[in-house]
Design a protein that fits this description.
Elements (H helix, E strand, L loop, with lengths): L21 E8 L4 H13 L2 E7 L8 H7 L8 E4 L2 H10 L4 E4 L6 E2 L9 E5 L8 H4 L4 E4 L11 H19 L3
Parallel strand pairs: 1-2, 1-6, 2-3, 4-6, 4-7, 5-7
Length: about 180
């Protein structure tokens, strides 16, 4: 039987072994649901992303609903809260990080065909209204998850997992990550 990795619930972050983080910044813009924020943290930890940026009305720790779905992942993933997404994007741009919106939009490239740069920031928008047009204009590209059913989108927490692992798969196919 394979040995199971340790479960780190309740373990102080400073006592954990270091994690080699992937150069991915996850930007959550005006998320309505704190549960989706918590799920984003959990997935960001699983994918070992560099940073989570919480913007606008997105809930941020400490928050009971985030704690319920994140299961403590916000203690392990670096994160920052920004009142305005434009300030977040300006800081990323100043650091030379390309910014890609994840949105169902005209001209969006399917994420499987997108040339993912390293590093990269991926912007996920509001669960109902998506990414604001003014924010889309600040992005260097737009990628989408192709939809084959009647709905034109998936839950944003699901989209985060699809995109993060899509990026990592793309990078692995190009060589060592």
């Amino acid at each position: 039987m394979a040995e199971r990795e340790p479960h780190y619930a309740g373990v102080p972050p400073e006592t954990l072994p270091p994690v080699s983080r992937h150069p991915i910044h996850v930007v959550l813009d005006n998320f309505r649901s704190a549960y989706n924020v918590g799920s984003a943290f959990r997935t960001a930890d699983a994918a070992a992303v560099a940073h989570v940026h919480l913007c606008g009305m997105s809930a941020h720790p400490p928050h009971r609903k985030i704690e319920k779905t994140a299961l403590g992942a916000f203690d392990y993933v670096p994160w920052t809260y920004h009142e305005r997404v434009k300030d977040c994007l300006a800081a990323l741009r100043a650091d030379g990080v390309p910014i890609v919106a994840i949105e169902v939009a005209d001209g969006a490239t399917p994420f499987t065909d997108f040339a993912w740069p390293q590093p990269v920031a991926v912007v996920f928008g509001n669960e109902v209204t998506g990414i604001n047009e003014s924010v889309l204009r600040q992005c260097d590209g737009v990628a989408c998850i192709p939809m084959y059913g009647h709905k034109n989108s998936v839950n944003v927490a699901t989209a985060i997992g699809v995109i993060l692992y899509g990026i990592l798969t793309c990078w692995q196919q190009a060589g060592p990550v």
